[in-house]
Amino acid sequence: MRVQQTAFGLFMLCFFGCTEIGPVITPLEPGNPGSGQSAPQMVWIEEFSGVRCVNCPAGSAELDQLAKAYPGRLVVVSIHAGFFSNPYSENRYDFRTTEGNNLLNLLGQPLGYPSAVVNRKKFEGETDLQLSRTQWAGFIAQELNKTPAVDLNVASTFNAGTRELRADVDVKRLDNLADPGTLRLSVFLTENDIQDTQLTPEGKKDDYLHRHVLRKALTPFDGAPVGGDLTAVGASVRRSFVFTMPQGWRPEACKLVAAVHRSGDSWEVLQAAEKSL
Amino acid sequence: MNTYGYAPACLRGNIGIFLAAIAVFFAFCPLASTAQEGQEGGRLSGSLQANANFFIRDSLIGAANTPQYDRQLYGAESWLNLQYSNWGFDFGLRFDLFNNSNLLNPTDSYTAEGIGNWFVRKKLDKLGIQAGYIYDQIGSGIVFRAYEERPQLLDNALIGLKLSYDLAPDWQIRAFTGRQKQQFDTYRSVIRGLSVDGFIASKSQEAWWSAAPGFGVVSRTLDDLSMNSLVATLNTYSPDYAFVPKYNAYAFSLFNTFSAGGLSWYVEGAYKTKETVNDAFAETIVNGDTIIGDRLVNKPGTVVYSTLSYARPNLGLTLEVKRTDHFSFRTRPQEQLNRGMLNYLPPMTRVNTYRLTSRYNAAIQEIGEWAFQGDLRFALGKAWRFNLNASNIVRLDQTLLYRELYLDMQRKFGRKGTAILGVQRQEYNQEVYEFKPGVPMVQTVTPFLEWQYKVNERHSYRVEMQYMHTGMDEQAGARQDYGNWLFALAEFSIAPKWTFSASDMYNISPGKNSPADAKGNKRSLHFPRVDVFYNLRSTAFSLSYVKQVEGVVCTGGICRLEPAFSGVRFSVNSSF
After folding, report:
1. A39-148+184-218+248-276: CATH, from 3.20.20.100, 3.90.850.10, 3.30.565.10, 3.40.30.10
2. Which residues of A57-77 are buried (b: 16+ CB within 10 A; e: fewer)?
3. If contacts are CB pairs under 8 Å, which of residues 221-260 in chain A contact chain B?
4. How close B505 gets to chain A, by Cα (Å)?
C-alpha cells in the first residue's frame, strides 16, 4: 500500500506547475531600421539548393515569405551546389558554379536540404553554420536586431552594348567595429526568376522560377580584402569590379549583392547590400 | 566545416578535464599489473573501438565531392571506455575522438576530441545515486530513451543526476534531471523524468504468472533561445497557422509485461501533451499556392504499442502492433533527422542481415503510422528450422508505406553442413520514405541461399548467393530505383583467429537511378568488398576494401545523402 501511495503522490507531483505563462507572439514590425541607426542592419542569407532537391522549392518560398516580412532587409543568394544540383537532361541551364562549390566547402555541407547559412554565423547552440528551414526565421530576427558596424553601398553601371558591368562598392566604418584589418568584401551577381526544370513534391516542374541564383562571383569566392584604412570611425573605402556579362543572362533580372565579412576562423558577415542592375 | 575548429576553447577545456580525470583515476586505482584487480577489491575494465577510413575517390559510383574524397583522404573515429569499481563506487570515463569523420554528417567532415562520457555511481542502502552522463530508458523507450548508436554517431546521453530508490524488494522509483548531450556540448533544454517499475508474481507454483507494471513521466522545458527562435518563426506564419508554443511538454507512459507459462504480453500506452512538432508533410497555403513541406504544428501525441509472444520448445510466435500519432519528442522542435531525440519508437519490421534483403528499410514515421508485425519460428526435428515473418505499415489514412513477407528454411546436414534457403518480398513506399515524388512503390523479390560447411575443427567456409528482382517503373520505362542486383559472398575461416571474406554486389539490370555513361546508357556496376578479420584473445582486427552503393535517405521533408563508400577500412575492437 505504501508503494502505491508513494507512486500516486509522485504522479500528482508531476502535474504541479503545469500551468505556464507562454511567450507573446508579437509580429515583428517589418522593415523598420532600428531607431537612430544611420543604416539598417541587413542579413545575408546563402541558401543551398539544387534542381533535384524536392524540398528546396518550399525553402525558396519560405525565404520569399521572410523577405516580405522584412522588406529590403534580406539579401538572398541561392547557391546550387552539392549532390542535388546535378542538372537533369531536361534542364536548360546548369546553375552550378565553381564559386558555389567552393562556398559549400567553405561553409560546410548541410545535414539535409533545404539549408541556409545566415550571416555566416555559428549561432549559440548550433553544431555548424548550416541551418534547417525551421531555424531561419529565428536567427534572421536575431541578426536584424544587431547594431551595424559597417555601412555598405553598391552602385552599378551596365553597358547594354558591350554587356560590361561595373560595380562600385563603398564600405564605411561605423562605431562598434573591432579589428577592421581582417575584413573582406564579397560581391556576387545573382539572377532572379529563371524558368527551368525543378523537382517539386508534385514531380518535375519545367516552368519553375528559380530565385536569386548565384551566377558569378566578381571577387574571389571567399572575398577580397577590403583594403584602405578603416581605423577611424567614419572612414570609407571604395572598391570597383568590372565584369562582362555572358549572353543569355538578363540584366533586368540580375542583382549585384555584396557582403562585408570576417575571414580566417570566422567568416561572419557584418553588413550586406544589394542593387538591381 | 567543423574542421575549421569550432569551440576550440571547449575542446581544450575537455582535454584538460580529461587529463585531470585520468590522473585522478589512476591515483585512486590500485592497479595490479595483469588482472586489473586492486588490492582493496577494485576492478578496472575497459574497451576500445577504433575505425580508420582511407578514402579512394570514385566519381563513377558517387564516392566524390565530400571533403574526405576531395582533399582529406583519411578519417578516423575512436572510443576508449574505462570503468573502475571500488569502495562501493562505480566510475566511468570515455575518451571520444573524431578525425575527418563522416558519421555526424555523411557529406561533411567532423573533427573533435574530448570526454564523451563520465559518471560516478554509488548505492547507499536503498538509494542509488548517479551523476554525469546517464544512459537509461523508461518502458520500451517511447517517452524516454538515452542511448548510443555509434554507426550514426547518435549519442543521446543525459548529462545530469539520477536517483533511484528501492520502495520494496520488487519496486523501484527512478528520477532524473539534466540536459541532453550534443557531441561535446549540451543542448539547452532541461529534461526531467520519473518512473516507477515493479514486479508482481503469483505465489502458486501450479498456475504461475507475473506482471511487471510501470509508469513514467518525462518533461522537457524549452530554453529561452530555442523559444525565441520558435517565436520568430511563428511570427512569419499567417493567423491560420500561428499558435502560442509551450515551454513545457509532458509525456506519460503506462506499461506492463504480463507473463504466464510460455506467454508474454507487453503493452504500453503513451500520451504527450500539446507541443510544437515539425510536420514534414504539412500542406501550407501561401498566396493561393499549396506548399508541401515542413511546418510547425501544435498537437498532442499518442502511441499505443503491444507485443504478444508465445514460446514453446521448437516454437516461437510473436505478434506486434503499434499506432503512432504526432509523437515526435525532441530536445527542441527545430532538431531534425536523428538529432535531439528524447525517445525511441520501436521499429516494426524484421531486422534483416543479408546485404540485399536489408537494402530497403522502413524509417519510423513520427507523425503517424499503423504498424503490424508477426513472426513465427518453428523446428521440425533436429534438422529443419523455419522462420516466417510478415510486417505491414500504413499511414493513419491507410496509405501503404511498407509491406514485407519473409520466409527462410534452415536444414542441417549432420554436424558439418547447414543450408539456409529463403525468399523476401517487399513493397516500399519510396515516395514517402525518400520524398521522391511520382515514383512507384518499389517492389522486390529477393531469394537467397547460404551454405555453411565445417571442414574440420579449425577450417570452415560459408557462401551466400542473393538476387533482388525489382519491379518495373512503367512511367520511366526502366526498372525501379537501381534495378536488379546480384550478390555473392565467399568466406573462409581458420579458427580461432582468421576469417577471410570476399563479396560482390552487381547491378545486373540497372534501373532508373543507376549511373549512366556519357551517352545516357545505364551502367552495370560492381561493388566488391574484401575483408580480413583477425582475433587475438579479446581483440578483433579487421581490414576491408569496400565499394558500397550510395543512397538518398529522407526522413520526412529532410533528405540526407548517404554517400557511396570507396576505400579501405581498418578497425580494432578490444575489451580488457
Report:
1. 3.40.30.10
2. bbbbbbbbbbbebbeebbbbb
3. none
4. 23
